[in-house]
Amino acid sequence: MNVLAILIPVSLLLGGAGLVAFVWTLKSNQYDDPEGEAARVLLDG
Hints:
This protein is mostly helical. Helices cover 76% and strands 0% of the residues. The chain contains two helices and no strands. The longest helix is centred in the N-terminal third of the chain and has 26 residues, at 2-27. The protein is elongated. It comes from Cognatishimia coralii. This is Cbb3-type cytochrome oxidase assembly protein CcoS.
């Protein structure tokens, strides 16, 4: 039972860190690709 007292906060901390990192990538436009791979394939032909 003592292990749960350690694992639950650690898992919440890691999950929160992952969420913060994901939101940071969204705000810094990491996923913006106006000319995506699909458009490049069609235009290169």
